[in-house]
Amino acid sequence: MGEYEARTGRMCKPPLQSSRRKNIEFEPLSTTALILEDRPSNLPAKSIEEALRHRQEYDEMVAEAKKREIKEAHKRKKIMKERFKQEENIASAMVIWINEILPNWEGMRSTRRVRELWWQGLPPSVRGKVWSLAVGNELNITPELYEIFLSRAKERWKSFSETSSENDIEDAGASAADREASLELIKLDISRTFPSLYIFQKGGPYHDLLHSVLGAYTCYRPDVGYVQGMSFIAAVLILNLEEADAFIAFANLLNKPCQLAFFRVDHSMMLKYFAAFEVFFEENLPKLFLHFKSYNLTPDIYLIDWIFTLYSKSLPLDLACRVWDVFCRDGEEFLFRTGLGILRLYEDILLQMDFIHIAQFLTKLPEDITSEKLFSCIAAIQMQNSNKKWAQVFASLMKDNKEGDKNHSPALKS
Prior knowledge:
414 residues, Helicase, Ruva Protein, domain 3, 3 domains, 24 helices, disordered N terminus, disordered C terminus, coiled coil, small GTPase binding, Rab-GAP-TBC_dom
């Protein structure tokens, strides 16, 4: 028997204590539990003082763990309470918007009560409707007109997908080549739109819809065509509106002076917007303004991306939608006020950075940016300089530009 056990590597059954010790390596014992363990029999036993100290350490660790658990439970409870309160506020606000404000839109939209409610963020169920009303439809686009331009876009996609000779392309002229490049850019950009959501990518539920709205717009406004950044604006509208309504809002939104200046790459106008922004930058954040100046870090480095996508690429989607809410209420001024709010929120961090790190930071903002913190900083931004508001500052810059053009006019010099 002994010989067999020796050959197979087995041993006689040891005493109970040794058996328990042998199996320790298989038992998932925690570090805290090991403190309480007696030493193996081949080592000196713990002294009473050491055993008491280990017991005290263990009790302290257990107490600390319980404290952390209670703290985490309180934190979870607080978050749940805030979420519940937020949901209650949204529900009560939704009732007010649906029953009181929307039926009396023109009479109530500018009242103090509505403006204050608007600032708090629109309930998702009425967001699209309020955006449509606020943006308006100065272009008088109808759903039928959208269908016409969508049909043209589809015809164009079909013709471009079919094999054509080089002569045909040459005969079509440069404008056709531009349109083709524009359509190719749309395809490329759609896959880059909110990639983490997976709904606009190929095979996603909103891919074709986004393609349709952008394609129809290039036919509607061939003078503007497709510009990178447009896909994010169209995508946000699609998430909140029906297809035709999204196109109507999209076309009207891009027809606003600020958006038109940026999407048509009107350098002269863009520079005026940057100059106006810097007036309020210096007024609100003088230390950071001088810090940026010392590195020759101009607004175009970070503002272009923010304005092109109306913050929908730079901020978390729910926060971007809240920025859109107030943008629809206040117009272009709020886009620049939001930019200053972001700079104020991260002022202390930015003051410690050099040119490269500032540019990188503002290109990709932290993902943990919260609505409460950002809107608190935006609220603290004063859009007034020497008793002049945004519109007045911008108008004076435009006036200076026109007078400058007159002074440099050859006709006036002769």
